[in-house]
């Protein structure tokens, strides 16, 4: 089932997610719904807070970037077929040079900005079967994971922008929270009063 994506301005996007255990109610169904929601919105990642749940789950599918001619062959191979659920994830280390890449977010439609992130990460997480992993990623894959990881830490990519950029975007972000935006996927807006 495709769920509405929570828009910028909703307090759930600012909550630090809590760990879950393997007995979390309807976990398999939740993951299926999250994948459907992400693909329905043409995303490459989706975190549980973006569907209103302040828990430590996010999904990543790097495949859409595998066709990007501007990336190296090695980078495209890493992205091709990369599809994972990350549960109770914690980044252990971020190293390397910071590099900028133009990022967007399903919760902040029609806003894209260059964000600087470290090149390489090591992350510990559980998969959907609650098997534990510690893995290292770099390049664009690391960036997608870092972006989604930020969501379970209550951080949005706009938080990483300069004060000037934030001031320039203030009106657009306010409009998103009020639902004054056109998107081709379901969203839930925090500042729209429900009719009684």
Structure summarized in a few sentences:
The protein has 196 residues and is an alpha+beta fold.
Descriptive account of the structure:
With about 200 residues, this protein is of the alpha+beta class. It has a single domain, classed as Peptide deformylase (Peptide Deformylase), CATH 3.90.45. It is built from four helices and seven strands. The strands form two sheets. Strands 2-3-4-5-6 form a five-stranded antiparallel β-sheet. The protein has a two-stranded parallel ribbon with strand order 1-7.
CATH class: Alpha Beta
* Envelope shape: globular
- What's the domain count? 1
Total strand count, please?
7
Number of helices: 4
Mean pLDDT: 95
* CATH architectural name: Alpha-Beta Complex
Uncertain runs: none
Q: In the CATH hierarchy, what is the superfamily?
A: Peptide deformylase
Give the termini separation: 26 Å
Q: Write the element-wise H/E pattern from the N-terminal end onward.
A: EHEEHEEEHHE
**Which percent bin holds the helix content?**
25-40%
Q: Which strand order spans the largest sheet, edge to edge or round the barrel?
A: 2-3-4-5-6
Largest sheet: 5 strands, antiparallel
Task: State which percent range the strand residues make up.
Answer: 25-35%
